Amino acid sequence: MTTMISSLTKEILIISREQDVVPFRNRVKEHAVKIKMGLVNQTKLMTAASEMIRNMLRYGEGGQASVETISKGSQSGVRLIFVDKGPGIADIQMAMKDGFSTGKSLGLGLPGTKRLVNEFDIQSELGKGTVVMLIKWANG
Amino acid sequence: MERIPILKMGPFLLVTIQVDLYDRLALDLEADLVQMVSKTEAKGVLIDISAVSIVDSFMGRILGNIASMSKLLDAETVVVGMQPAVAITLVELGLPLKGVSTALDVEKGMNLLRSIIQVQDPKEEDDDDDLIFD
């Protein structure tokens, strides 16, 4: 039997400029602190959030980012969902490879972010946009 | 517009990042610092990131860039005060910041800068060092 994930609190922020990353990271931290996530995990999650916001702005022309505290059985965690209506990713497998970038970055964004969190899911459709979901468990 | 102040201290430039970084701010710091190195003929740059709670791949790259650019202008860069959680995150992210000198705090960073510069150019220190005889 799979345990259901239930959402406890949720906030949605509109991401349209670089500075928006600062309040979003602060919201992420607040949620992480609320579920007593340790400092290292908090830092990893905030860094992951930072990477994803940059991707949204650079490739997806901005979008919506949500942060929520969730629970699954006895575990609690923070889930982040990033939704953009950009051009989408042509080859997700390539995009998930270390060192691959269509922009001028180091190509660490997606694979690096995946290493920093416990669950990572990316859905993308060309011409429609991209949705990235990630979860960090408090003791994950 | 928000900007990170750069202080001149003898032959060194001192930067303490006390605000939450975003990309434009980091890029401006990179440009300002490199300009200042050239203008003041600084021999060393010390960047204190003890108040920075996250460094992502972009900011990490900027730190590396600052070190490389300053090097081209004959100045050494030392990054000090990195929080342990930031170090763990950077390595896991895949950005171990090779090529950037680090020290645990400002004092150790200053000592490191002085020792690097002294090794490179021992003559310049003659004036203020009583123990050296010609």
How would you concisely characterize the structure shown here?
The complex is a heterodimer of chains A (140) and B (134). Chain A is built from 4 helices and 5 strands. By secondary structure, chain A is of the alpha+beta class.
Structure description:
- Chain A has 140 residues and is α+β, with helices and mostly antiparallel strands.
- Chain A has helices at residues 21-34, 39-59, 92-95, 109-116, and strands spanning 5-15, 63-72, 75-84, 119-125, 129-137.
- Chain A has a 5-stranded antiparallel beta sheet, covered by helices on one side.
- In chain A, strand 4 (119-125) and strand 5 form a beta hairpin.
- Chain A is globular, with a radius of gyration of 14 Å.
- The mean pLDDT of chain A is 90.
- Chain B contains 4 helices and 5 strands, in the order ββαβαβαβα.
- The termini of chain B are far apart.
- Chain B is globular and about 40 Å long.
- Chain B is of the alpha/beta class and 134 residues long.
- Chain B has a 5-stranded mixed beta sheet, with helices on both faces.
- The model of chain B has no long low-confidence stretch (mean pLDDT 90).
- Chain B has a single domain (6-129), classed as 2-Layer Sandwich (Transcription Regulator spoIIAA).
- In chain B, 44% of the residues lie in helices and 16% in strands.
- The chains are: A alpha+beta (140), B alpha/beta (134).
Q: Work out the strand percent of chain A.
A: 25-35%
Average residue pLDDT of chain B: 90
First-residue to last-residue Cα separation of chain A: 21 Å
> Which CATH architecture of chain A?
2-Layer Sandwich
Radius of gyration of chain B: 15 Å
